[in-house]
Design goal:
alpha+beta; 9 strands; 16% helix
């Protein structure tokens, strides 16, 4: 019964080109990229902003207060949100690659291409530099600080930078 229902080709006949293409596509899609190297933030080309932030992962979730660090250099960005002594989120971009790490859950996502719109941590450096944001992402700067919000999911990050230029959220 098993052989009759699940046999794909008689012995000695290679699988068709469609099966080989499917196998190649699946193998390529599952290949994980190596982690991005940690940035050398002490190098002079990095612009660093640090301060305090509140993160709300969804409308009904509690706010999490912590320290935020955003570092940028041409072609690269780095964001870290910590609640001493724990790093909660690290997000970075480099040329055509992005990475999101959530150490408490032992998860890391490293992918090629543009950062996904729904990951606010990857959108924060873009917002600070005045770049165009995805449709559902809103950036507001006020006298008391800044707020980045995904209007579709209700996720938000708001805070202030103690050493940032005025346009980036420092009163």
């Amino acid at each position: 019964m098993f052989k009759k229902n699940f046999a794909t080709a008689p012995a000695g006949i290679p699988p068709g080109p469609g099966a080989l293409l499917l196998l190649a596509a699946l193998a390529a899609g599952c290949a994980s990229l190596p982690p991005l190297p940690p940035p050398a933030l002490s190098a002079p080309q990095w612009t660093i902003s640090s301060g305090q932030a509140l993160w709300k992962s969804r409308p009904d979730a509690p706010e999490i207060a912590g320290d935020i660090l955003v570092a940028t250099t041409p072609g690269r960005s780095f964001v870290q949100f910590t609640k001493t002594p724990f790093t909660l989120v690290t997000a970075q971009t480099a040329s055509n690659t992005w990475q999101l790490e959530i150490p408490a859950e032992n998860r890391r996502y490293t992918r090629r291409g543009s950062p996904p719109a729904q990951v606010l941590w990857l959108q924060l450096p873009r917002a600070m530099s005045g770049q165009a944001l995805p449709e559902n992402v809103r950036w507001n700067v006020a006298q008391s600080g800044w707020k980045l919000e995904n209007t579709a999911t209700g996720e938000s990050i708001e805070g202030y930078f103690s050493n940032a230029p005025v346009g980036a959220g420092r009163p």
